[in-house]
């Protein structure tokens, strides 16, 4: 049960786009289309932003989008806004009904 | 709207035990799989355990297997995590989370968490 790999940090200026990667294996990210992304502001509980690789829950701006290629999933935030500054975690369903999370990426809006 | 409220955290000595609870409301508790996820101070999220909607299937992370028992009481709409043989590395905020559907689906609702500190 190894964690998924995310870059520790990412940044962009307001209005720009930024992409965060999440790398796993064929037993998790690459084997299932059950990748999710969560946003977490300091002191708050995580919030679901993307699920099943590309789907957005109701209320999540369409500036957030997801994709996957092989064992790597990605979250793209377009038109960066100040309120997007937060930690982002990917997660994936893995073999035998387990869940893996990435180590998290701190997104800074410059 | 679904709400989850954790309780039971606190300071416990290494080797000690603790039972965390999560009171659920705003949805049909018995219809959804549930999970515990933890976050050590300043660290990332770590899945701890999951339980099926009926309670007859449970799964645990290797890091807690054999020391944790997850259960649910549909009459009280409450989720539990019995944690034994606690270690310093178990210090974390423990979140209760609801699966959107089943074990393969995302967590669509989270509680605010309860802090467990393992220290002498």
Short characterization:
Chain A is mainly beta. Chain A is built from no helices and nine strands.
Features:
heterodimer; A: 110 residues; mainly beta; six-stranded mixed beta sheet; three-stranded antiparallel beta sheet; globular; B: 120 residues; seven-stranded mixed beta sheet; four-stranded antiparallel beta sheet
By DSSP (H or I, 4+ residues per run), the number of helices of chain B equals 0
Helical fraction of chain B equals under 10%
Shape of chain A: globular
State the separation between the terminal residues of chain A, measured CA to CA: 35 Å
Question: In words, what does this structure look like?
Answer:
- The complex is a heterodimer of chains A (110) and B (120).
- Chain A is mainly beta and 110 residues long.
- Chain A has no helices and 9 strands.
- In chain A, the strands form 2 sheets. In chain A, strands 1, 3, 4, 7, 8 and 9 form a 6-stranded mixed sheet that branches.
- The radius of gyration of chain A is 13 Å and the shape is globular.
- The model of chain A has no long low-confidence stretch (mean pLDDT 96).
- Chain A binds chain B through residues 1, 3, 32, 34, 36, 38, 40, 45-48, 51-52, 57, 89, 91, 93, 96-104, and chain B through 35, 37, 44-47, 50, 57, 59, 61-63, 95, 100, 103-108, 110-113.
What's the layout of helices and strands?
The complex is a heterodimer of chains A (110) and B (120).
Chain A: E1 9-12, E2 18-23, E3 35-40, E4 47-50, E5 64-69, E6 72-77, E7 86-94, E8 98-101, E9 105-109
Chain B: E1 3-7, E2 10-12, E3 18-25, E4 34-39, E5 45-51, E6 58-60, E7 68-73, E8 78-83, E9 92-99, E10 107-110, E11 114-118
Parallel strand pairs in B: 2-11
Antiparallel strand pairs in B: 1-3, 3-8, 4-5, 4-9, 5-6, 7-8, 9-10, 9-11
């Amino acid at each position: 049960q190894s964690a998924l790999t995310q870059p520790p940090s990412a940044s962009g200026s307001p209005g720009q786009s930024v992409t965060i990667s999440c790398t796993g294996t064929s037993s998790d990210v690459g084997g299932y289309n059950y990748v999710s992304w969560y946003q977490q502001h300091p002191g708050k509980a995580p919030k679901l932003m993307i699920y099943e690789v590309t789907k957005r829950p109701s209320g999540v701006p369409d500036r957030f989008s997801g994709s996957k290629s092989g064992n790597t999933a990605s979250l793209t935030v377009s038109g960066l806004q100040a309120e997007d500054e937060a930690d982002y975690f990917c997660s994936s369903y893995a073999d035998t009904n387990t869940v893996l999370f990435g180590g998290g990426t701190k997104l800074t809006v410059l | 709207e679904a709400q989850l409220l954790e309780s039971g955290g606190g300071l416990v000595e290494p080797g000690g035990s603790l039972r965390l609870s999560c009171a659920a409301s705003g949805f049909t508790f018995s219809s959804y799989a549930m999970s515990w996820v933890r976050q050590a101070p300043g660290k990332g999220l770590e899945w701890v355990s999951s339980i099926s909607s009926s309670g007859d299937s449970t799964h645990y992370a290797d890091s807690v297997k054999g020391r944790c028992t997850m259960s649910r009481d549909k009459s009280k709409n409450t989720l539990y995590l019995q944690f034994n043989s606690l270690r310093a590395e178990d210090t974390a905020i423990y979140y209760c989370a609801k699966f959107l559907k089943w074990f393969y689906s995302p967590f669509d609702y989270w509680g605010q968490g309860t802090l467990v500190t393992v220290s002498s």
